[in-house]
């Protein structure tokens, strides 16, 4: 575990995650990469950055398929969001389309995509309140708006499942998006009617709808 103390520990992440190291060591490796993205991303080599984008997507996909530890998936989700804050959409135009594609692989994949979208929406909203990053957050907000129809369609698809946890996740994501997206999007879709007729009478889901 001596690599953890190294200044370039983030470079060892792929080797650590692909080995027989303990769960705790793998989590620390992911944390090292998260810190590198937060504080060094702009200075990292472009080829390394592209490699990390691809690797983290694959890592999340594989971990979900193989019922990997949720703490590892959650940390990888944060890495994706932090990268998106720097590179989306200009240097990572496929970020959202890749997520939406992944969401259709399984219900667990879909639930995780909603988790990522919720975190991203929170980050955009927080940035929008900071004048130093208002231009950057506006760019991300405008790009998110381009995908809102696809996201709403995905939310509505979850209504056809019997997976209460998945539906709660989708509704929680919707709650975060409507705080800064044009309300006409909701009024022009069938989503609002479904919310009123299906879920406001369901005690398990009502909090997610109005929260």
Question: How would you describe the overall organization of this protein?
Answer:
- The structure is a single chain.
- The longest helix has 22 residues, at 107-128.
- Helix 2 (23-40) packs parallel to helix 4, helix 6 (107-128) runs antiparallel to helix 7 (134-146) and helix 9 (164-177) runs parallel beside helix 12.
- The protein starts with 12 loop residues before the first helix and ends with a helix.
- It has helices at residues 13-17, 23-40, 46-65, 70-87, 95-102, 107-128, 134-146, 148-158, 164-177, 184-187, 191-199, 203-210.
- By secondary structure, it is mainly alpha-helical.
- The protein contains twelve helices and no strands.
- Helix content is 71%, strand content 0%.
- Pfam families: Xpo1 (PF08389).
- One of its GO terms (molecular function) is nuclear export signal receptor activity.
- Residues 75-208 form the Exportin-1/Importin-beta-like domain.
- This is Exportin, putative.
Fill in the keyword field for this structure.
211 residues, mainly alpha, 12 helices, 71% helix, 0% strand, ARM-type_fold, XPO1/5, ARM-like, nuclear export signal receptor activity
């Amino acid at each position: 575990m001596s690599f953890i103390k190294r200044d370039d520990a983030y470079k060892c992440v792929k080797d650590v995650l692909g080995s027989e190291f303990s769960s705790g060591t793998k989590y620390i490796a992911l944390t090292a990469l998260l810190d590198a993205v937060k504080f060094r991303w702009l200075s990292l080599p472009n080829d390394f950055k592209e490699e990390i984008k691809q690797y983290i997507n694959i890592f999340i996909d594989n971990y979900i398929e193989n019922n990997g530890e949720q703490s590892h998936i959650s940390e990888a989700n944060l890495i994706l969001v932090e990268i998106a804050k720097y590179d989306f959409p200009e240097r990572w135009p496929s970020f959202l389309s890749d997520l939406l594609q992944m969401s259709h692989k399984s219900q667990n994949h879909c639930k995780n995509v909603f988790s990522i979208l919720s975190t991203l929406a929170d980050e955009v909203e927080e940035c929008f309140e900071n004048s130093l990053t208002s231009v950057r957050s506006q760019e991300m907000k405008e790009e998110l708006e381009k995908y809102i129809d696809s996201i709403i369609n995905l939310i509505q698809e979850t209504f056809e499942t019997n997976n209460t946890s998945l539906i709660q996740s989708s509704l929680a994501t919707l709650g975060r998006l409507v705080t800064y997206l044009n309300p006409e999007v909701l009024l022009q879709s069938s989503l609002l009617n479904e919310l009123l007729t299906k879920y406001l009478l369901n005690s398990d889901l009502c909090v997610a709808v109005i929260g």
